[in-house]
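Morning!

As promised:
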Amino acid sequence: MARVVVNVMPKPEILDPQGQAVAGALPRLGFAGVREVRQGKHFELDVDDSVDDETLQQIAGTLLANPVIEDWSVTRVADQADGAAE
Amino acid sequence: MSARIGVITFPGTLDDVDAARAVRYAGAEAVPLWHADADLHGVQAVIVPGGFSYGDYLRAGAIARFAPVMTPVIDAAGQGMPVLGICNGFQILCEAGLLPGAMTRNAGLRFICRDLWLRVENPDTAWTSEYQANQRILVPLKSGEGRYVADQRTLDELEGDGRIVFRYDAPAPNGSSRDIAGVSSANGRVVGLMPHPEHAIDPATGPSADGLGLFTSVLTQLVDN
């Protein structure tokens, strides 16, 4: 089994009002120096070894992300034996 | 025999009842379609109504787009069957690739619920033939993720091809690109919009009867299949 991480982010040209709201809240809490915040999604998938990279890209591009407004990256973070601790 | 218009219900759909009522007001038979249905029960057009299908999990419309009933809807749309997506239905049709673009969180982050004026930009689609060009209609908008976005090239194409069907009075309250409230497929048979014409079919229950025209328009556009 493998642990796969898929990160999904709004494309740079897409307005991210949620990220802007977070960025706007930080100075009010006394945190200075954060110029921009972009908010996205982080998925962790445990997949069988039979799932190849191309399939992972299809999973990300078909369901996890909407290619019209989002970019994504697929990363295999670690192979793990069945039942083993992370 | 009156026309048969299908109205889809997904888990989390809210506006199927009003959409079916609008179909009946227009003089057609409203046929309930369930998300798990594998066929369209012989309907001649389909309405994908508003709500929060599958709790808007992942992205609005992202899960509903893969519901079993969407397979025959996409097939039928490809053969010219009129399909109307309202609000969450519009989001679903975009996710399904039947309409270009996508909806993101409102620019001001607030859920918007109010009656507003739209301009009918294209009266030549299957769902707007009863309107005049530039006619203004008063309908409710109620959405938190209603900001229409697409890349510049797509927006230019939509503009050039007359596929922007409805526009908000500028500036769009949700920040939609080019004040777009609704768009159509290239052949004008599939239309999606964020505001809710099905809530504006009778002054007794809505701000106007201006929305009824979508539901009467399609009755002139049906083909037997």
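Residues 27 and 33 of chain A are 8 Å apart (CA to CA).

Hope this helps with the figure draft.
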